[in-house]
Specification:
Helix 1 links the parallel strand 1 and strand 2. The model has no long low-confidence stretch (mean pLDDT 97). The chain is globular. The longest helix has 22 residues. It has a 7-stranded parallel β-sheet with strand order 3-2-1-4-5-6-7, with helices on both faces. It starts with 7 loop residues before the first strand and ends in a 9-residue tail after the last strand. With 255 residues, it is an alpha/beta fold. Helix 1 crosses helix 8, helix 3 packs parallel to helix 4 and helix 4 runs parallel beside helix 5. The protein binds nicotinamide-adenine-dinucleotide (NAD).
Protein backbone atom coordinates (compact mmCIF):
# COMPACT_ATOMS: atom_id res chain seq x y z
CA UNK A 1 0.00 0.00 0.00
CA UNK A 2 1.43 3.37 -1.03
CA UNK A 3 0.70 6.61 0.80
CA UNK A 4 -0.70 8.12 -2.41
CA UNK A 5 -2.41 5.10 -3.98
CA UNK A 6 -5.02 6.28 -6.47
CA UNK A 7 -4.08 9.97 -6.19
CA UNK A 8 -3.80 12.06 -9.34
CA UNK A 9 -1.31 14.93 -9.00
CA UNK A 10 -0.19 17.95 -10.97
CA UNK A 11 3.43 18.78 -10.14
CA UNK A 12 4.81 22.10 -11.40
CA UNK A 13 8.42 23.21 -11.20
CA UNK A 14 10.45 20.24 -12.47
CA UNK A 15 13.44 21.80 -14.21
CA UNK A 16 16.40 19.55 -13.39
CA UNK A 17 16.84 16.39 -11.35
CA UNK A 18 17.91 18.66 -8.48
CA UNK A 19 14.51 20.46 -8.49
CA UNK A 20 12.54 19.91 -5.29
CA UNK A 21 9.55 19.14 -7.53
CA UNK A 22 11.45 16.32 -9.28
CA UNK A 23 11.83 14.57 -5.94
CA UNK A 24 8.19 15.18 -5.04
CA UNK A 25 7.17 13.59 -8.37
CA UNK A 26 9.60 10.68 -7.90
CA UNK A 27 8.45 9.89 -4.35
CA UNK A 28 4.79 10.44 -5.24
CA UNK A 29 5.03 7.88 -8.03
CA UNK A 30 6.76 5.40 -5.77
CA UNK A 31 3.90 5.91 -3.27
CA UNK A 32 1.32 5.04 -5.93
CA UNK A 33 0.34 8.41 -7.43
CA UNK A 34 -0.29 9.18 -11.06
CA UNK A 35 1.73 12.32 -11.87
CA UNK A 36 1.28 14.98 -14.54
CA UNK A 37 4.06 17.59 -14.77
CA UNK A 38 3.88 21.13 -16.08
CA UNK A 39 6.53 23.33 -17.62
CA UNK A 40 6.75 26.34 -19.87
CA UNK A 41 8.52 28.23 -22.63
CA UNK A 42 12.14 27.51 -23.32
CA UNK A 43 12.54 24.98 -20.51
CA UNK A 44 9.60 22.78 -21.59
CA UNK A 45 11.80 20.33 -23.52
CA UNK A 46 14.22 20.15 -20.61
CA UNK A 47 11.36 19.15 -18.28
CA UNK A 48 10.26 16.49 -20.80
CA UNK A 49 13.79 15.10 -20.82
CA UNK A 50 14.06 15.10 -17.00
CA UNK A 51 10.62 13.44 -16.77
CA UNK A 52 12.27 10.45 -18.43
CA UNK A 53 14.34 9.98 -15.25
CA UNK A 54 11.26 9.42 -13.08
CA UNK A 55 10.38 5.85 -12.07
CA UNK A 56 7.46 6.00 -14.54
CA UNK A 57 6.96 8.21 -17.58
CA UNK A 58 5.00 11.37 -16.77
CA UNK A 59 3.29 13.61 -19.33
CA UNK A 60 4.18 17.32 -19.34
CA UNK A 61 1.54 20.00 -19.96
CA UNK A 62 2.32 23.57 -20.88
CA UNK A 63 1.78 26.17 -18.12
CA UNK A 64 3.40 29.56 -17.72
CA UNK A 65 1.81 30.70 -14.46
CA UNK A 66 1.81 34.31 -15.65
CA UNK A 67 -0.23 33.47 -18.78
CA UNK A 68 -4.00 33.70 -18.35
CA UNK A 69 -4.39 31.76 -21.60
CA UNK A 70 -2.35 28.86 -20.17
CA UNK A 71 -4.26 29.01 -16.87
CA UNK A 72 -7.62 28.91 -18.69
CA UNK A 73 -6.46 25.95 -20.78
CA UNK A 74 -5.08 24.01 -17.79
CA UNK A 75 -8.15 21.83 -17.02
CA UNK A 76 -8.40 20.68 -20.63
CA UNK A 77 -4.65 20.04 -20.90
CA UNK A 78 -4.61 18.02 -17.68
CA UNK A 79 -7.78 16.10 -18.63
CA UNK A 80 -5.96 14.78 -21.69
CA UNK A 81 -4.02 12.61 -19.20
CA UNK A 82 -6.13 12.19 -16.01
CA UNK A 83 -9.84 12.63 -15.31
CA UNK A 84 -9.32 14.97 -12.35
CA UNK A 85 -6.86 15.94 -9.63
CA UNK A 86 -6.46 15.10 -5.94
CA UNK A 87 -3.43 17.31 -5.45
CA UNK A 88 -1.38 20.14 -6.90
CA UNK A 89 2.23 21.05 -6.14
CA UNK A 90 3.33 24.67 -6.57
CA UNK A 91 7.14 24.67 -6.86
CA UNK A 92 7.58 27.89 -8.76
CA UNK A 93 9.75 30.85 -7.94
CA UNK A 94 11.54 33.54 -9.87
CA UNK A 95 12.91 37.03 -9.20
CA UNK A 96 15.02 39.19 -11.50
CA UNK A 97 18.65 39.43 -10.40
CA UNK A 98 18.21 43.06 -9.34
CA UNK A 99 15.62 41.98 -6.75
CA UNK A 100 18.09 39.87 -4.75
CA UNK A 101 21.72 39.89 -3.66
CA UNK A 102 21.65 42.98 -1.45
CA UNK A 103 20.01 45.36 -3.91
CA UNK A 104 16.84 45.72 -1.82
CA UNK A 105 16.84 49.51 -1.57
CA UNK A 106 17.28 50.05 -5.32
CA UNK A 107 15.07 47.41 -6.96
CA UNK A 108 12.50 48.85 -9.36
CA UNK A 109 8.79 48.21 -8.93
CA UNK A 110 8.75 46.41 -12.31
CA UNK A 111 11.26 43.85 -11.05
CA UNK A 112 9.46 43.48 -7.71
CA UNK A 113 6.19 43.03 -9.60
CA UNK A 114 7.72 40.23 -11.69
CA UNK A 115 8.93 38.45 -8.54
CA UNK A 116 5.53 38.72 -6.86
CA UNK A 117 3.61 37.73 -10.01
CA UNK A 118 5.63 34.56 -10.64
CA UNK A 119 6.35 33.56 -7.04
CA UNK A 120 3.31 34.71 -5.03
CA UNK A 121 0.19 35.49 -7.07
CA UNK A 122 0.86 32.30 -9.03
CA UNK A 123 -0.19 30.17 -6.03
CA UNK A 124 -3.65 31.73 -6.24
CA UNK A 125 -3.66 31.57 -10.05
CA UNK A 126 -2.60 27.90 -10.19
CA UNK A 127 -4.99 26.83 -7.44
CA UNK A 128 -8.02 28.57 -8.94
CA UNK A 129 -7.16 27.23 -12.41
CA UNK A 130 -7.05 23.72 -10.93
CA UNK A 131 -10.37 23.97 -9.09
CA UNK A 132 -12.49 22.53 -11.95
CA UNK A 133 -10.31 19.40 -11.67
CA UNK A 134 -10.71 19.05 -7.88
CA UNK A 135 -14.47 18.54 -7.65
CA UNK A 136 -14.05 16.15 -4.70
CA UNK A 137 -11.61 18.40 -2.83
CA UNK A 138 -7.85 18.05 -2.79
CA UNK A 139 -4.52 19.13 -1.38
CA UNK A 140 -2.44 22.04 -2.65
CA UNK A 141 1.17 22.19 -1.45
CA UNK A 142 3.57 25.06 -2.11
CA UNK A 143 7.30 25.48 -1.45
CA UNK A 144 8.28 28.26 0.90
CA UNK A 145 11.43 29.73 2.43
CA UNK A 146 10.75 30.96 5.99
CA UNK A 147 9.63 34.57 5.57
CA UNK A 148 9.16 35.54 9.22
CA UNK A 149 12.59 37.21 9.31
CA UNK A 150 14.83 39.21 6.93
CA UNK A 151 17.65 37.07 5.50
CA UNK A 152 20.89 38.19 3.87
CA UNK A 153 20.66 38.48 0.04
CA UNK A 154 17.10 37.10 -0.28
CA UNK A 155 15.61 40.62 -0.37
CA UNK A 156 12.45 40.92 -2.54
CA UNK A 157 12.21 37.16 -2.87
CA UNK A 158 11.73 37.20 0.91
CA UNK A 159 8.90 39.68 0.50
CA UNK A 160 7.42 37.45 -2.23
CA UNK A 161 7.61 34.46 0.14
CA UNK A 162 5.94 36.44 2.95
CA UNK A 163 3.15 37.08 0.44
CA UNK A 164 3.09 33.40 -0.48
CA UNK A 165 2.58 32.48 3.19
CA UNK A 166 -0.34 34.89 3.44
CA UNK A 167 -1.77 33.78 0.09
CA UNK A 168 -1.83 30.16 1.24
CA UNK A 169 -3.75 31.14 4.38
CA UNK A 170 -6.35 33.09 2.37
CA UNK A 171 -6.69 30.22 -0.09
CA UNK A 172 -7.17 27.89 2.88
CA UNK A 173 -9.96 30.18 4.14
CA UNK A 174 -11.69 30.53 0.78
CA UNK A 175 -11.36 26.94 -0.42
CA UNK A 176 -11.77 24.98 2.82
CA UNK A 177 -15.54 24.80 2.33
CA UNK A 178 -14.88 23.00 -0.97
CA UNK A 179 -12.65 20.46 0.72
CA UNK A 180 -9.41 21.89 -0.63
CA UNK A 181 -6.49 22.10 1.83
CA UNK A 182 -3.65 24.53 1.15
CA UNK A 183 -0.33 24.16 2.96
CA UNK A 184 3.32 25.10 2.52
CA UNK A 185 6.58 23.32 3.15
CA UNK A 186 9.26 25.78 4.29
CA UNK A 187 12.49 24.12 3.20
CA UNK A 188 16.03 24.97 4.22
CA UNK A 189 18.46 25.99 1.44
CA UNK A 190 18.89 23.48 -1.39
CA UNK A 191 21.28 23.68 -4.31
CA UNK A 192 18.86 23.94 -7.23
CA UNK A 193 18.74 26.13 -10.34
CA UNK A 194 16.58 28.69 -8.48
CA UNK A 195 19.19 28.80 -5.69
CA UNK A 196 22.02 29.29 -8.20
CA UNK A 197 20.27 32.42 -9.44
CA UNK A 198 20.51 34.03 -5.97
CA UNK A 199 23.74 36.05 -5.77
CA UNK A 200 25.43 35.18 -2.44
CA UNK A 201 23.39 32.01 -1.80
CA UNK A 202 26.43 30.51 0.03
CA UNK A 203 25.61 32.79 2.98
CA UNK A 204 22.57 30.61 3.70
CA UNK A 205 24.66 27.49 3.65
CA UNK A 206 26.77 28.84 6.53
CA UNK A 207 23.71 29.82 8.59
CA UNK A 208 22.37 26.26 8.28
CA UNK A 209 25.76 24.72 9.01
CA UNK A 210 25.92 26.67 12.27
CA UNK A 211 22.30 26.55 13.40
CA UNK A 212 20.50 23.36 12.33
CA UNK A 213 20.26 21.06 15.38
CA UNK A 214 19.45 18.12 13.12
CA UNK A 215 22.07 19.11 10.57
CA UNK A 216 21.27 20.09 7.00
CA UNK A 217 22.37 18.76 3.63
CA UNK A 218 21.99 21.35 0.86
CA UNK A 219 22.21 18.69 -1.85
CA UNK A 220 19.40 16.55 -0.42
CA UNK A 221 15.88 17.68 -1.40
CA UNK A 222 14.31 14.42 -0.22
CA UNK A 223 13.30 15.59 3.31
CA UNK A 224 11.35 18.53 1.82
CA UNK A 225 9.86 16.28 -0.87
CA UNK A 226 8.75 13.74 1.74
CA UNK A 227 6.87 16.45 3.64
CA UNK A 228 5.11 17.45 0.41
CA UNK A 229 4.08 13.83 -0.17
CA UNK A 230 2.76 13.59 3.40
CA UNK A 231 0.68 16.75 2.95
CA UNK A 232 -0.66 15.43 -0.36
CA UNK A 233 -1.74 12.21 1.37
CA UNK A 234 -4.83 11.52 3.49
CA UNK A 235 -2.76 11.79 6.68
CA UNK A 236 -3.33 15.53 7.18
CA UNK A 237 -7.10 15.56 6.63
CA UNK A 238 -7.88 18.57 8.86
CA UNK A 239 -4.71 20.60 8.29
CA UNK A 240 -4.85 23.72 6.16
CA UNK A 241 -3.20 27.15 6.12
CA UNK A 242 -0.20 25.47 7.76
CA UNK A 243 3.53 25.86 7.17
CA UNK A 244 5.58 22.72 7.83
CA UNK A 245 9.25 23.57 8.34
CA UNK A 246 11.70 21.11 6.86
CA UNK A 247 14.88 22.97 7.74
CA UNK A 248 16.78 20.82 10.24
CA UNK A 249 15.16 22.86 13.02
CA UNK A 250 16.68 26.28 12.19
CA UNK A 251 13.35 28.17 12.39
CA UNK A 252 12.93 27.16 16.05
CA UNK A 253 16.39 28.18 17.26
CA UNK A 254 17.62 31.46 18.73
CA UNK A 255 21.01 32.72 17.60
N1 LIG B 1 16.31 25.87 -3.41
C1 LIG B 1 16.05 26.36 -2.21
O1 LIG B 1 16.95 26.64 -1.41
C2 LIG B 1 14.61 26.55 -1.80
C3 LIG B 1 14.31 26.61 -0.44
C4 LIG B 1 12.99 26.81 -0.04
C5 LIG B 1 12.01 26.95 -1.01
N2 LIG B 1 12.34 26.87 -2.33
C6 LIG B 1 11.27 27.04 -3.32
O2 LIG B 1 11.06 25.82 -3.98
C7 LIG B 1 10.41 26.07 -5.21
C8 LIG B 1 11.09 25.27 -6.31
O3 LIG B 1 12.39 25.76 -6.53
P1 LIG B 1 13.69 24.86 -6.64
O4 LIG B 1 14.63 25.33 -5.59
O5 LIG B 1 13.34 23.43 -6.74
O6 LIG B 1 14.36 25.38 -8.00
P2 LIG B 1 14.09 25.06 -9.56
O7 LIG B 1 14.86 26.11 -10.29
O8 LIG B 1 14.40 23.65 -9.84
O9 LIG B 1 12.53 25.29 -9.73
C9 LIG B 1 11.95 26.56 -9.97
C10 LIG B 1 10.87 26.32 -11.00
O10 LIG B 1 10.09 27.50 -11.24
C11 LIG B 1 9.65 27.39 -12.58
N3 LIG B 1 9.14 28.65 -13.10
C12 LIG B 1 9.75 29.88 -13.06
N4 LIG B 1 8.96 30.78 -13.68
C13 LIG B 1 7.82 30.12 -14.09
C14 LIG B 1 6.64 30.51 -14.78
N5 LIG B 1 6.44 31.77 -15.18
N6 LIG B 1 5.69 29.56 -15.03
C15 LIG B 1 5.88 28.27 -14.64
N7 LIG B 1 6.98 27.85 -13.98
C16 LIG B 1 7.94 28.77 -13.72
C17 LIG B 1 10.92 26.95 -13.32
O11 LIG B 1 10.62 26.38 -14.58
C18 LIG B 1 11.45 25.90 -12.35
O12 LIG B 1 10.96 24.62 -12.70
C19 LIG B 1 10.46 27.59 -5.41
O13 LIG B 1 9.23 28.16 -4.99
C20 LIG B 1 11.56 28.01 -4.44
O14 LIG B 1 11.44 29.35 -4.03
C21 LIG B 1 13.61 26.66 -2.73
Amino acid sequence: MGLLDGKRLLVTGVLTDASIAFHVARLAQSEGAQVVLSSYGRVFRLTERIAGRLPQPAPVVSLDVTSQEDLDALPERVRAHVDGLDGVVHAIGFAPESAMGGNFLDTSWEDVATAVHVSTFSLKALTVASMPLMADGGSVVGLDFDATVAWPVYDWMGVAKAGLESTSRYLARHLGPQGVRVNLVAAGPLRTMAAKSIPGFEEFENVWKDRAPLGWEITDPEPAARACVALLSDWFPRTTGEIVHVDGGVHAMGA
